[in-house]
Every structure is written in structure tokens, then in C-alpha cells.
């Protein structure tokens, strides 16, 4: 033969897909990547041989086509190696695993060398310098080339195994993330279900109080508002985040209920600055804060009081400030509403969100600072 082919580098790994699943290989990714590698490998090998024979005057295109055919033939063995990895997955103690790979390496090496020699005799890429059939010593060629083919087999096997381990690790990480997300969703849903009976119980008690005092018109208004709130709660079931504008509309219905309950003792003002209404907030996050403000603040003040809500978008953050008339207890014991608020924020945002309560001169300020998000 006019030239001896030497692998220039380890073969790039074909994307063998997730061998532990059915189908055993993702051919949409596997075949194009493997074909691309062997194409590049063939071109590089052909260019190297051409450079080493510049003074021979060979046809460069014909030489490159020959080496492309030689190394693209390794696409089949690469596929076979991936199949063997599927049959004998890493870590599996099966009899015959090593024997199967040894047999495959020998068979692939012999077949590929014979194919290469046959292709050379047919295409004659080295022009008149190409060896004829009578000049070819098949035993010598096998003796010198088969070890190189075995090395190539081992390198390909190593790459396939590396990608197999990567795919398995990636799959486990994905499943772990999905499981963690499911657990968080379940906890948030449980917190939401815990909040709804609490709110319903308090509102029904208020309705009962209005009925006993024969304030029937206010009781009817409160029942209508309660129906709207329950409908909103059912419509939003399963949604952990909603636009602030929707949450504020629900909050206004709740404040109307409280105004019917306390008559002229409660006033409120809502200010949404700029695009803050488009920011996403946890579903039903404001109602327990306002309920807490009315129950522990305004209800304890004979002259009543006011509630002011302000929201604005500042530096990729959504800041919501709720100020109400009243005082903050020296050693406050948080009720279910505030505890759920903190727990929901922690599960949804981790350390990225903050919730604080502070006291001023005759007022209490609740502040929510959330990452800025908008609806997809």
C-alpha cells in the first residue's frame, strides 16, 4: 500500500441517547453527531496524507473522497458499540460482557481493514502509485492495522460510556428537580387550602354578627362579596402566581366586605405606580395581610382607621407596601395568615423575597419585596 492510515485523535463521542430507555438510542441526535465526527476525521486524515505526498501529484478531491468513505464506514461500528453498551450497561455484572466487546473489536477491525483495502483497489486514490491486488500482503496489513483499529474501538467505547454516564446523571438530576418541585407545589397547595377555611370562618362569623344586629343590607353585601372571593379562589386554584392587578381587584372586593362590616370606620386607598400591576405575586398573598391589619389594627381603634396599599416596580423588584392604622404588639404572636405568608414566600422564592413588619407613629407597615416577574 502507498500509505498507512493512523488515527489522529480519539473519536468524538456520538450522542448515544439514553441507553437505559426504550428506544435504546436517540437516532435524531446520535447519527448526525457520529456522522459529523467521522466526516471531519476522514477529511483531516486525507489532508494529512495529501500533505505527506505533495510531490506525488495525487488528485486532492479524489484522495479526500476516498478517506471520507474509509472513515464514514466507522459510523456502523460506532452504532454497534452503542448497542453493546445498551446490552451490557455500565456496572452490570453479566457473563460474556468482556467477551462480547473483544469479539466485536476483532470483527470490526478485520472487516474495516478489508473494506479499506478493497475500496483502495477499486478507487485507486493514489493513481499509478496505488498497489495492485497482487502487491497487497493482506496478512501484513491485518497485523499492522488491526491493533490501531482496536485502539480506535476502545476510544469510541470510552466516549460512549462517558456520555452514557452523563445522560444517566442528567436524568437523575432532572427527576430529582421534578420531585422537589412537586413537593414544593404540594406544600404550597396545602398552605392555600389551610388559608381558605380560615378566611371563610372569619367572614361567616362577621356575617353572623351583622345578622344578629339586624344589619341585613350590610350582611347581604358581605355575602355577595364573599361569593365573588370564593369564585376567584376556585378560578385561580393551582396557580401559584397571578398578576398584581388581578390580586388587587380581589383585594378590593375583600375591603368592600370589611367596609360593610365596620361601616364608616374603615377607609382604603390603593396606588399602583407604573407597570407594577403587571408584576406576578403569589395568589392570595395580600388578603391575609389586609385581614391582619383590620383585625389587629383598625378593629382595636375606636375611631377606626385607614389602609393604604402602594406598589411599584423598582430595579427589577416589585415592592408592595401596606400601611394601616394601629400599633404593633411588643411580642407579637403571628397567626395563620402571617405564618402562611412567610412560608409561601420561602417556598416560592427562597432568599430572593422578603417580608417585614414595622411600626411607626400610630401605624403598622407591612412590606413585600419580590423578584420582578411578568406573565409569560
TrEMBL record:
Pfam families per the UniProt record, alphabetical: His_kinase
Annotated organism of origin: Tahibacter amnicola
InterPro entries linked to this entry: Bact_2-comp_sensor_kinase, HATPase_C_sf, Sig_transdc_His_kin_internal
Taxonomic superkingdom: Bacteria
TM ranges: 30-51, 63-85, 97-115, 150-166
Annotated signal peptide: none
Official protein name in the record: Histidine kinase
GO molecular function list: kinase activity
Keyword terms: Kinase, Membrane, Transferase, Transmembrane, Transmembrane helix
Domain Signal transduction histidine kinase internal region: 186-265
Amino acid at each position: 500500500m502507498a500509505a498507512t492510515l493512523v488515527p489522529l485523535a480519539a473519536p468524538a463521542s456520538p450522542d448515544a441517547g439514553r441507553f437505559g430507555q426504550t428506544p435504546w438510542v436517540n437516532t435524531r441526535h446520535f447519527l448526525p453527531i457520529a456522522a459529523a465526527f467521522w466526516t471531519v476525521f476522514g477529511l483531516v486524515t486525507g489532508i494529512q496524507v495529501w500533505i505527506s505526498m505533495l510531490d506525488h501529484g495525487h488528485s486532492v478531491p479524489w484522495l479526500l473522497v476516498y478517506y471520507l468513505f474509509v472513515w464514514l464506514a466507522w459510523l456502523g461500528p460506532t452504532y454497534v458499540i452503542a448497542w453493546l453498551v445498551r446490552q451490557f450497561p455500565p456496572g452490570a455484572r453479566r457473563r460474556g460482557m468482556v467477551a462480547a466487546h473483544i469479539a466485536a473489536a476483532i470483527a470490526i477491525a478485520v472487516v474495516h481493514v478489508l473494506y479499506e483495502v478493497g475500496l483502495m483497489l477499486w478507487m485507486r486514490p493514489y493513481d499509478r502509485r496505488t498497489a495492485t491486488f497482487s502487491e497487497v500482503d493482506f496478512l501484513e496489513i491485518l497485523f499492522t492495522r488491526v491493533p490501531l483499529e482496536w485502539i480506535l474501538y476502545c476510544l469510541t467505547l470510552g466516549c460512549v460510556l462517558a456520555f452514557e454516564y452523563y445522560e444517566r446523571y442528567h436524568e437523575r438530576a432532572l427527576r430529582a428537580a421534578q420531585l422537589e418541585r412537586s413537593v414544593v407545589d404540594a406544600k404550597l397547595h396545602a398552605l392555600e387550602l389551610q388559608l381558605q377555611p380560615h378566611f371563610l370562618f372569619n367572614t361567616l362569623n362577621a356575617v353572623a354578627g351583622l345578622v344578629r344586629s339586624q344589619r341585613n343590607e350590610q350582611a347581604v353585601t358581605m355575602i355577595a362579596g364573599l361569593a365573588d372571593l370564593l369564585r376567584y379562589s376556585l378560578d385561580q386554584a393551582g396557580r401559584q402566581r397571578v398578576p398584581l392587578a388581578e390580586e388587587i381587584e380581589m383585594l378590593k372586593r375583600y375591603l368592600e366586605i370589611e367596609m360593610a362590616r365596620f361601616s364608616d370606620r374603615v377607609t382604603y386607598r390603593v396606588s399602583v405606580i407604573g407597570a407594577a400591576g403587571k408584576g406576578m405575586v403569589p395568589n392570595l398573598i395580600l388578603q391575609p395581610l389586609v385581614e391582619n391589619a383590620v383585625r389587629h389594627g383598625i378593629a382595636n381603634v375606636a375611631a377606626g382607621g385607614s389602609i393604604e396599599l402602594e406598589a411599584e416596580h423598582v430595579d427589577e423588584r416589585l415592592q408592595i407596601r401596606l400601611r394601616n392604622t394601629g400599633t404593633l404588639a411588643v411580642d407579637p404572636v403571628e397567626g395563620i395568615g402571617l405564618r402562611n405568608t412567610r412560608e409561601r414566600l420561602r417556598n416560592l422564592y427562597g432568599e430572593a423575597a422578603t417580608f417585614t413588619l414595622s411600626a411607626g407613629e400610630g401605624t403598622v407597615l407591612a412590606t413585600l419585596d419580590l423578584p420582578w416577574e411578568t406573565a409569560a
